[in-house]
Specification:
This protein is α+β, with helices and mostly antiparallel strands. The protein has 18 helices and 31 strands. It is globular, with a radius of gyration of 25 Å. The two termini are 35 Å apart.
Length: 613
């Protein structure tokens, strides 16, 4: 029947052996995060921390740590919600199969938000920001952060819950220049819903009211991260998924309050009022650095009786947000492809940090009356993909024509690259977008939010066979001469460290000229890396290094390269320089002392001693 609260979810998971309590005191500085990451890596249970140093409130983590556990939590509603999303994406589906969708309208109507009177468990007490669990995940983080928030705002021109936005944007609780218990930091990008709301409030010179919900039924945080189709409110989705209408009311200051949340932080964001936010260890595998972001002046911190704080840890994938992604795909299925005509499938590659790398399959039917062995329609599809919601944050898009291989799988990294490199014409099939916007979290570009993109498009019959072993006569010129085969047709080479672009352009011009004499048969891509052995050891390492540490317009070279009528291409293998650059953000590295310290939780007889870690 769905959970009325986070506490009910915790009790249910514990009853079914899917949650473990940790009664020993834990330090919110690095320890809690380190425990959560180790348990997640082992495919372990949800975690309930009863005794957190410096806070009276307990916390839960790893709720969504496995797809199987997520499906268990939503076992009563998942199928109905899938159909509801189907109907919103394609209303004609009801006409095609009315019996299948018979209950969808009832589900949606039964999920409408429910405005309550001014009384709810959330009004049990008030606290201060500094008394919340001050969880710090990574050694260089700028302070404590809320990592599982539901950030609620309304359109100042169209107030009310049905035009509101509920999103998951990180919240900095402490550190930097924030005044203790009075100010916190919000990190979000302007194209997100909250950014649109802030722009409208700024235009009127008025503060934006913000409510931050933490905890509540697990359907609530999931709704905050869902890429929902146009016209489907996060609150309706939360009600449908949770089998419980989203209950809310407005406090005496006019802030929307989630009646079922465990905590609600209310506050205002004034026009052009920013403070430094960060650093923060982020999902791309590096730190987001310190930049000015909106400041929120705290009004109230409400909490219910026996409130439970909810948190997660983000870092280089896979992490719990990876499992979030699996659940989202389980629910939405082919939602995005239905929004772009001719798109059959699209996948943000999680091991590459999600946004840097996209795989897509499109329809190629520009000239059905004749066979043309080159990309046509998939190029127009690619441009639509790069303009769609969060897909627009991608740097590298590899798109293939589905007709060439009906079994092509966008989730098979090695198989997809093999298909592409067997068919692509490197002199013709690369298309760059320069001096454009990229993900705020990606520091491979030439400034915050600034960088470039490239489309790799392949259509037609197989043109070549790819090398599956290094050629015995592969004699590479210095300074890049230590080679490893990462994937069929893909070689990783290490050598000299990167200095600066002015010097490296000269070095690589000389190297590519000398490399013309090398036998590159079966090789289509050369990746320059700081550590070829690490990069080539696993495909996860390969995509993470290659696509997070490079800026296409700056870092793509080629053997026999040319620019003709504004088009860049190469006759020999393509080169991606994925070495660390001086402007890159630091990698996320765990604290070795903390890792040793938490071993006590995993020894025989301890709370987590039964896990295979």
């Amino acid at each position: 029947m769905g959970y009325p609260s986070l506490a009910a979810c915790v009790a249910d998971l514990e009853q079914h052996g899917r949650l473990v309590r940790i009664t020993e005191e834990v330090d919110p500085y690095l320890e809690m995060a380190a425990i959560q990451m180790r348990v997640y890596d082992a495919g372990g249970p949800a975690l309930f921390f009863e005794n957190i140093k410096g806070s009276e409130f307990p916390a839960v983590a790893n709720l969504f740590g496995t797809l199987e556990r997520s499906k268990f939590m939503f076992r009563d509603s998942l199928d109905h919600v899938k159909r509801l999303v189907d109907v919103k994406m394609d209303p004609t589906a009801v006409l095609k199969n009315p019996m299948k969708y018979l209950g969808s309208s009832a589900v949606a109507m039964g999920a409408l938000p429910w405005k309550k009177k001014f009384n709810a468990p959330i009004l049990y007490g008030k606290t201060q920001i500094s008394k919340l669990p001050q969880i710090v995940n990574w050694p260089m983080d700028g302070g404590a952060f809320v990592t599982m928030p539901q950030v609620y705002t309304e359109d100042i021109n169209q107030p009310g819950i049905m035009k509101s936005n509920l999103g998951m944007y990180r919240i900095q609780l402490s550190g930097n220049d924030y005044i203790k218990d009075q100010e916190i930091g919000l990190h979000y990008q302007l194209h997100r819903g909250i950014g649109v709301h802030q722009q409208k409030a700024n235009a009127l010179g008025k503060p934006l009211k913000v409510s931050i919900f933490v905890g509540g039924p697990p359907s609530h945080p999931l709704s905050a991260v869902m890429p929902l189709p146009e016209g489907l409110s996060e609150m309706i989705f939360a009600g449908a998924l949770g089998n419980r209408r989203f209950r809310y009311f407005y406090d005496k200051e006019g802030f929307c309050i989630s009646a079922d949340a465990d905590f609600v932080i209310t506050g205002t964001v004034y026009p052009n009022e920013n403070k430094p936010e960060g650093p923060f260890g982020d999902h791309i595998g590096y730190y987001s650095l310190t930049h000015p972001f909106p400041l929120m002046r705290v009004h109230n911190v409400y909490h219910k009786k026996d409130a439970i704080w909810s948190f997660t840890v983000v870092g280089r994938p896979p992490q719990e947000d990876t499992s979030f992604g699996h659940l989202i795909h389980e629910i939405t299925g082919s939602a995005i492809p239905k929004e772009i005509n001719g798109l059959k499938a699209v996948h943000a590659v999680d091991p590459a940090g999600v946004h840097p790398l996209l795989f897509a399959i499109g329809r190629e039917s520009y000239t059905p009356y004749q066979q043309v062995d080159r990309p046509q329609e998939i190029l127009t599809i690619a441009n639509q993909v790069l303009g769609k919601n969060q897909l627009s944050l991608a740097k590298y898009l590899f798109i293939a024509a589905g007709e060439d291989n009906p079994q092509l799988d966008i989730h098979n990294i090695a198989g997809f690259f093999t298909h592409m490199f067997e068919r692509i014409d490197l002199s013709r099939d690369l298309h760059f977008q320069t001096n454009t916007t990229i993900d705020t979290l990606d520091y491979s570009g030439d400034g915050l939010n600034a960088g470039s993109k490239v489309i790799f498009a392949a259509a037609g019959t197989k043109k070549r066979s790819l090398a599956t072993t290094l050629p015995s006569d592969l004699n590479l010129p210095r300074p890049f001469n230590q080679a490893k085969l990462a994937l069929p047709g893909v070689v990783v080479v290490d050598g000299a460290a990167f200095t600066d672009y002015a010097n490296e352009i000269k070095v690589l011009a000389a190297w590519t000229e000398a490399a013309k004499d090398v036998n590159w048969e079966g090789i289509q891509l050369i990746v320059l890396a700081d550590d070829a052995e690490f990069t080539a050891a696993r495909e996860d390492n390969f995509v993470w290094v290659t696509f997070t540490k490079s800026n296409p317009a700056y870092d793509i070279y080629g053997i026999g390269s040319f620019t003709r009528f504004k088009h860049w291409g190469c006759d020999g293998p393509l080169i991606i320089d994925a070495r660390r650059k001086p402007h890159h953000a630091p990698d996320l590295i765990k604290d070795a002392a903390v890792e040793r310290k938490i071993d006590r939780f995993f020894t025989k007889g301890a709370a987590l001693g039964h896990l295979d870690v």
